[in-house]
Specification:
2 domains; seven-stranded antiparallel sheet; Jelly Rolls; mainly beta; 16 strands; globular; nine-stranded antiparallel sheet; about 280 residues
Length: about 280
C-alpha cells in the first residue's frame, strides 16, 4: 500500500495536478526516489540459491551436475517432483525420501535426500557428461553406526557406466573409529583416524583425474562448515591410481552395513575447482 501511495503522490506532483506550492511535493518524490524497493531493487538480500537447474547454479561451478532436492523435476521417472535431475535407483530401500526435512535435514534450502538401505547396498545414480576430470562438493550426514563391525562404505562414487573409477568414503579402522578414504584404483589414500558425530553435517570436497596406467589422481577433504574453512580430515592426494576410465555417472548412498541411514544434499560436480559455498 505504501509503495502504491508513494508512486501515486509522485506522479500527481510531477504532472502538476495537485498542490499550489510545489515544495509540498518534495518529500514524497524524494522518498520515492530513495526507496530501493520501488526502484526495483531488493529491500533485503535474498538467500543464495544452490542450484537453478540440473547443471546450473549461481557460482557457475556445476557444469556436470547440480542437485539440491529443491526443484520441480521428477526424482525418479513418473513421480516425486522435488529434484533438479531424474535419478535411477538400485536395490530395495527400507526407507527412501526425496523431500526429507526432519532434523538434521534440511542440510540446505528446505529439503534433503534421505535413504535407509537396511544394509542391502542400495544406491541412486545419475548419468553426467563424460569427463576426464571431476571436482565435487557435497553435504553429507552419517547415519547410525554399528561400532563392532569393520567395513568400508562410500559417500560418493564416480563411475564409468557401472564400474567405479573413484570412491570417496570411509573405512572403519577400529571400533567406533573411521578413516576417510579416496580410491582411484589400487590402495586407497586414507585420513587419520576419525570419530563420527552422529547427526553432524560433513562437507565433502573431492577430486578425480583419469590416469594412463599408474598415475590417476584422487583426493577427499572433509570440512565441518559449508564455507570450507574448518577442515576435519583429508586423505591427501593419491597420484598413483590405476583407473584409466573417464567419469560418466555419479552414485550416492552406496552403503553396506555400517551406515544404514544417510542424508545427502547440495551436490555439485564440475570440471574445475569448487570452493566453499555461501547459501
Amino acid at each position: 500500500m505504501k509503495r502504491i501511495l508513494f508512486i501515486l503522490i509522485a506522479f500527481l506532483c510531477l504532472s502538476g495536478q495537485v498542490w499550489a506550492d510545489p515544495t509540498e511535493c518534495r518529500e514524497p518524490i524524494q522518498l520515492a526516489r530513495m526507496n530501493g524497493y520501488i526502484a526495483g531493487a531488493q529491500s533485503a538480500a535474498a538467500a543464495t540459491a544452490f542450484c537453478t537447474k540440473g547443471t546450473a547454479c549461481p557460482g557457475n561451478d556445476c557444469s556436470l551436475l547440480c542437485e539440491d532436492w529443491e526443484g520441480a523435476v521428477d526424482c525418479v521417472t513418473g513421480s516425486l517432483p522435488y529434484c533438479r535431475n531424474t535419478w535411477a535407483t538400485s536395490g530395495t530401500f527400507t526407507t527412501q525420501t526425496w523431500n526429507y526435512s526432519t532434523s538434521p535435514a534440511p542440510l540446505q534450502g528446505s529439503l534433503s535426500y534421505y535413504g535407509d538401505s537396511g544394509g542391502t547396498g542400495t544406491r541412486i545414480t545419475k548419468a553426467i557428461t563424460e569427463s576426464t576430470t571431476v571436482y565435487g562438493f557435497s553435504a553429507f550426514v552419517s547415519g547410525t553406526m554399528s561400532t563392532g563391525l569393520y567395513s568400508t562404505d562410500s559417500a560418493v562414487k564416480l563411475l564409468n557406466s557401472t564400474t567405479a573409477v573413484a570412491i570417496f568414503g570411509y573405512t572403519q579402522s577400529a571400533a567406533g573409529v573411521y578413516k576417510w578414504s579416496a580410491s582411484c584404483g589400487g590402495a586407497a589414500a586414507t585420513s587419520a583416524g576419525f570419530t563420527f558425530t552422529t547427526g553432524a553435517v560433513y562437507y565433502l570436497n573431492f577430486y578425480y583425474k583419469v590416469g594412463t596406467g599408474a598415475n590417476a589422481e584422487c583426493q577427499l577433504d572433509v570440512y565441518s562448515d559449508k564455507g570450507m574453512t574448518t577442515q576435519v580430515a583429508t586423505t591427501g592426494l593419491k597420484n598413483s591410481g590405476s583407473a584409466t576410465a573417464n567419469v560418466d555417472t555419479v552414485e550416492l548412498f552406496a552403503t553396506n552395513t555400517t551406515f544404514d541411514q544417510t542424508i545427502h544434499d547440495a551436490l555439485k560436480l564440475h570440471t574445475s575447482t569448487i570452493g566453499g559455498q555461501s547459501w
